């Protein structure tokens, strides 16, 4: 039997550790997840975990990156189903907020992630999110869907609002009710932005 390429074996080991860590973090939580338990589940050793991820915290970062990539794919699907780009943009934003209700995202991304890794607004994935928001808002402004605006400033404000809403939902006594309130307020915010018209001197004023 031919030997498998080393690159394939490395990728398989990483995938096994990611899957086992993700299950442990999503069910038991980061603090209670035992490295020995989930490495044994993957048929590997603690040494393999340290080699590939540097430890438990490094594995959490990798799990968060994996979930974040899946979230981006799901949001792209939401946008693709929309009747027009603006509705797709609104749909993506609302779907992002509503994902805070999902147990895995809630526990790993919104509860344990900030507790272990610090302020989510400083995570690497937020840079990409802000770039995407900025590009969308600039396009809408150029096409006249939105009034002229500082796209990056608006993107940072909207990104902060979505992140804050998600954290609010994850920590709320009644997440379902909190989600409805957050979605209603954020939808109004987006539609108010769209309804704004240039005021005297080029400033923005409500319609």
Topology, element by element:
Elements: H1 6-27, H2 35-41, H3 46-53, H4 56-81, H5 85-98, H6 103-117, H7 124-142, H8 151-171, H9 175-195, E1 197-198, E2 204-205
Antiparallel strand pairs: 1-2
Helix pairs in contact: 1-2, 1-4, 1-6, 3-4, 4-5, 4-6, 5-8, 5-9, 6-8, 7-8, 8-9
What does this structure look like?
The protein has 207 residues and is mostly helical. The chain contains 9 helices and 2 strands. It has helices at residues 6-27, 35-41, 46-53, 56-81, 85-98, 103-117, 124-142, 151-171, 175-195; strands spanning 197-198, 204-205. The protein has a two-stranded antiparallel sheet. The termini are far apart. 24% of the residues are buried.
How many DSSP-defined strands?
2
Number of helices: 9
Order of strands across the main sheet: 1-2
Distance between the termini: 73 Å
* Global structural class: mainly alpha
Percent strand equals under 5%
Q: Return residue spans where pLDDT drops below 50 for at least 5 consecutive residues.
A: 199-207
Q: Provide the residue-averaged pLDDT.
A: 91
Principal-axes shape call: elongated
From the alpha carbons, calculate the radius of gyration and give it in angstroms: 21 Å
Largest sheet: 2 strands, antiparallel
Helix content: over 70%
H/E element sequence: HHHHHHHHHEE
């Amino acid at each position: 039997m031919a030997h498998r390429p080393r690159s394939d074996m490395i990728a398989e080991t990483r995938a096994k550790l990611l899957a086992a860590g993700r299950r442990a973090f999503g069910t038991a939580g980061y603090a209670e997840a035992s490295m020995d338990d989930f490495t044994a589940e993957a048929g590997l050793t603690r040494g393999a975990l340290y080699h590939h991820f540097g430890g438990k915290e490094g594995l959490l970062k990798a799990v968060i990156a994996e979930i974040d990539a899946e979230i981006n794919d799901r949001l792209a699907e939401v946008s693709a189903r929309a009747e027009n780009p603006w509705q797709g943009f609104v749909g993506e934003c609302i779907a992002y907020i509503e994902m805070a209700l999902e147990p895995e995202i809630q526990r790993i991304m919104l509860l344990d992630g900030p507790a272990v890794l610090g302020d989510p607004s400083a995570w690497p994935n937020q840079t990409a999110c802000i770039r995407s928001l900025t590009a969308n808002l600039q396009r809408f402004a150029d096409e006249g869907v939105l009034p002229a605006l500082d796209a990056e400033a608006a993107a940072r404000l909207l990104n902060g609002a979505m992140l804050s809403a998600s954290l609010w939902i994850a920590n709320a006594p009644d997440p379902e009710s909190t989600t409805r309130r957050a979605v209603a307020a954020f939808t109004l915010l987006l539609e108010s932005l769209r309804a704004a018209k240039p005021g005297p001197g080029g400033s923005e004023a409500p319609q």
